[in-house]
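Retro notes, item 3 of 5
We never archived the inputs for the pyridoxal-5'-phosphate complex last cycle. Fixing that now. Sequence and ligand:
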Amino acid sequence: MQANPGLTYNPVIMSDQDVHPESLMMSYGYKPELSEGAAKSPIFQTSTFVFKNAASGNAFFELSSGLRELRPNEEAGLMYSRMNNPDVEILEERLKLWDGAEACAIFNSGMAAISTTILNLVRPGDLILYGSPLYGGTDKLMTVTLPEFGIHTVPFRPWESMKEVEQRLKASGFADKLAMIFIESPANPTNALTDIAGCRVLADKYATPGRPVRVVVDNTFLGPLWQHPIKHGADLVLYSATKYIGGHSDLIAGACLGSKLLIKRLKSMRSLLGTIAGPWTSWLMLRSLETLKIRMEEQGRNAEKVAAFLNKHPKVTAVHYLGNLTRKDGAQYRIFRKQCTGKGAMLSFEIKGGRDEAFRFLDSLRLIKQAVSLGSTESLICHPASTTHITVAPDEKKAVGLSDQLVRLSVGVEHPDDLIADIKQALAKVRIGDGLTASLRGGWSAEEGTAQGASLSATGGYARPRGPMYSDFGRTRAASLYCSITCALQPAMRAQANIGVKRSIGIPT
Ligand SMILES: Cc1ncc(COP(=O)(O)O)c(C=O)c1O
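Structure as it came back at the time:
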């Protein structure tokens, strides 16, 4: 659906040269003469639009409800802000430039974009093959909500070869029902990459005439700047626009980009479900888009410096950052080189120890805010296993490396020296194994806690492993055994041990 005549394009700019998206973020899609000459688009804070006459109102509704197509030289008009609004439409025109998409639909959250897209393209009985990990909300959609609607969902791991992914598909027994391959690449929070072109090949292999298999990529982690999934074969690109696109931690929104045909379908579903963003939110995003590139580039530069510091820190056991990938990482490195145009500004890293050490680190930060969300001007940090990904099944957490020692950092535009100084002083406060808790053996799952906790209680044990000893034992079962036998459990620790003690796991890093 296009805005009223004149509001959609600035044809002078686009007619004869390839202009960079950043040059168009201040102007594209807006005609000042339609708004009293205002240099900037006003906020069209209105729920409804006045028709010129009854016939034009009828024409707009015929078009929006799909009763007929646009006639030559006819332009669709504005009707009601659940269907369209100038701020939304100008934003859609601008946002699509980054991904080179034909069309874009804006939603009132990332989850609204994801759920509207899936509900529109998938039917009960269909199968969605999805890469795991995913953002916790999307994971719950895949594992709980969609199956309740009779939609089959099967996970695969980003590091598996397409052959292995196909084996999972065949083993599901629903290969002939495959309707969508859904991936987050890089995945939240581990930065694991999935081969988009490989997904395209697999999708095409299982598509039949009249039964397409859609490749849908949540590109939130690299934002519109550093990865363009459509160029690698994706049908649709999704964003939590709350993140880099909004960029200031002050709005919630989503976006989906793809072909005109698919986006038209999604917009019609969006009107029914009422999942469009409002004019004020869209106006804020128009403002944000003007600085998207400079914000993201600065964040990326800062992330590189923060990662370099973390890589060398003795209390950090692993840093999951795209800039750390080397040839030795095999397929992940190859995908990175093929698919990504930047390293991003998202890092996740593992604090030596476990949940207590990770919490201690987080609670010691002074400049970096503890909050979920990402991609904003200010740096934000969180503990995914206990927040954004809390509902991910324990076994899945184990399988994909979502350990208790993992923290996720979204690097902002602060001075990098200040960020590093903050991280340094917070890490200094972490004393490995300081105060026994159930989680002192980092990376152990909580679900086996009761049994192990009981064993600690029974021995009356109190483990206080020193740093080197702890790190030697690391994630080994031996450490668990050691603790069980040698512990002299303090009364205050007993309760904790009873809820959360565990044995070791091998976490893929
Ligand atoms: C990768 C990813 N996709 C989707 C979402 C959901 O977006 P929203 O919170 O805007 O609904 C998030 C939220 O954190 C996310 O990280």
